[in-house]
Specification:
The protein is an alpha/beta fold. The protein has one domain (10-202): Beta-carbonic Anhydrase, Chain A. It has helices at residues 10-26, 34-40, 61-64, 84-96, 111-118, 127-142, 148-170, 172-179; strands spanning 49-53, 72-76, 101-107, 184-190, 197-202. It is globular, with a radius of gyration of 17 Å. Bound molecules: zinc ion (ZN). Zinc ion binds next to helix 5.
């Protein structure tokens, strides 16, 4: 089982992140000496988790989990869509930095998912490539008979759950780390109103 620089396994790192999220929810941020931290980190990075999350300005992982410089290796794309460079970035965190935890963190009210639900054939330059990736989840969500906000949230959850499968299929590095138990993975949705994250799926 892999361990973080602090000797924690994936589940223990997740417990630290949840504790940070509780501080965020209550507005009790942990004070840190960023000058010292910045100096120490010139020697190299040993993040405790990799996070795939949306580019949306309201959902930065470091703030939501109350973490600091050097704690999280974060990959952000609108709607968490995956392509070779974002998968390669996650592979770097798993294969080279040896993080014991990968977090897939979507969120409530995602604009990219809303666009995929509202305009499945949207053709606006490169934005189309984002909508296209979420369209299958939107189509699946429509089968639930939901509409409006509920349909967007259903599509978001379908999309987030499909990302784990996509990563396993596309990345041998990530699939092997998961199969060997060296990496844990947790899929969560961030709730805009409460500030909390809810677990949709986890390997622990
Ligand atoms: Zn979003």
């Amino acid at each position: 089982m892999a361990h973080s620089p602090q000797g924690l396994n994936g589940k223990q790192v997740w417990q630290r992140l949840i504790a940070g999220n509780m501080r965020f929810v209550q507005g009790l941020f942990q004070g840190r000496n960023l000058l010292d931290l910045r100096r120490t980190l010139t020697q190299g990075q040993q993040p405790e988790a990799a996070v795939l999350c949306c580019s949306d300005s309201r959902v930065p992982a470091e703030i939501i989990f109350d973490q600091s410089l050097g704690d999280l290796f974060v990959v952000r794309t609108a709607g968490l869509v995956l392509e070779p460079t974002s998968i390669g970035s996650l592979e770097y965190a798993v294969g080279h930095l040896r993080v014991p935890l990968l977090v897939i963190k979507g969120h409530e009210g995602c604009g990219a998912v809303t666009a995929a639900v509202a305009h499945p054939e949207a053709a606006e330059s490169y934005i189309e490539s984002i909508v296209k990736q979420i369209a299958p989840a939107a189509a699946q969500a429509r089968l639930s008979g939901k509409s409006g906000h509920d349909l967007v949230e259903e599509a978001t959850e379908q999309h987030l759950k499909s990302l784990e499968e996509t990563l396993r299929r596309e990345s041998r590095v990530i699939a092997a780390a998961l199969d060997r138990g060296r990496l844990d993975l947790v899929v969560v949705k961030y709730l805009l109103h409460s500030g909390k994250v809810e677990i949709l799926n986890a390997t622990f």
